[in-house]
Design goal:
Subcellular location: Cell membrane
GO biological process, one term: immune response-regulating signaling pathway
Shape: rod-shaped
Radius of gyration: 38 Å
Helix content: 40-55%
Number of domains: 2
Strand content: 15-25%
Distance between the termini: 157 Å
Organism: Mandrillus leucophaeus
Structural class: alpha+beta
InterPro entries: Ig-like_dom_sf, Ig-like_fold, Ig-like_Receptors_ImmuneReg
Number of helices: 2
CATH topology of the largest domain: Immunoglobulin-like
Number of strands: 9
Keywords: Cell membrane, Disulfide bond, Glycoprotein, Immunoglobulin domain, Membrane, Receptor, Repeat, Signal, Transmembrane, Transmembrane helix
Largest sheet: 6 strands, mixed
Length: 195
């Protein structure tokens, strides 16, 4: 019985050490868009993932799923990779993150990067994620477009009012001239009759 107790105690200690031992991970990488996180539709996006020297593999994740893998050569001289995403569209817009591996150890997941695809300058941004910044950008885009439309409508209205006022003044002058002419003609006839 004492040997069984000792064996169970030893097994319990080993398990508790394995459970309490911190899992070793590498520092999280930094992810960023090479030029901008707002990519025009049909254009290429480039995401940079910076990890540690000696990383043998980098993985790019999109919305939590594996999207692409890069293996730098030689790994000991490179501490990051670039992922190219060709032909951006609304299906490729969203949240990206990356991780890297040195030996058998994996890094923590990077912070999320929200990639947005934009259309023509007159169209609104096609936002597919729910971040506050993107909501603000969409609101600003709608507001700017509405202000532009209202400004153009106001200018057209002012031009129409100016044309109407000019026409009214022109008709008024014509009536006044006709009235003066008839008054003058009437006086002239009256003067010729009295002579």
């Amino acid at each position: 019985m004492p040997s069984t107790l000792r064996a169970l105690l030893c097994l319990g200690l080993c398990l508790s050490q394995r459970i309490s031992a911190p899992k070793q991970t590498l520092p999280k990488p930094i992810i960023r868009a090479e030029s901008t996180y707002m990519v025009p539709k049909e254009k290429q996006a480039t995401l940079c993932c910076q990890g540690s020297y000696g990383a043998v593999e980098y993985q790019l994740h999109f919305e939590g799923s594996l999207f692409a893998v890069e293996r730098p050569k030689p790994p000991e001289r490179i501490n990051g990779v670039k992922f190219h995403i060709p032909d951006m569209n609304s299906r490729k817009a969203g949240r990206y993150s990356c991780i890297y591996r040195v030996g058998e150890l994996w890094s923590e997941r990077s912070d999320l990067l929200d990639l947005v695809v934009t259309a023509d300058s007159w169209d609104t941004c096609l936002l597919t994620t729910e971040t506050g910044l993107q909501k603000d950008l969409a609101l600003w885009d709608h507001t700017a477009q509405n202000l532009l439309r209202m400004g153009l409508a106001f200018l057209v209205l002012v031009a129409l009012v100016c044309l109407l006022v000019e026409d009214w003044l022109s008709r008024k002058r014509t009536r006044e001239q006709a009235s003066r002419a008839s008054t003058w003609e009437g006086r002239r006839r009256l003067n010729t009759k009295t002579l």
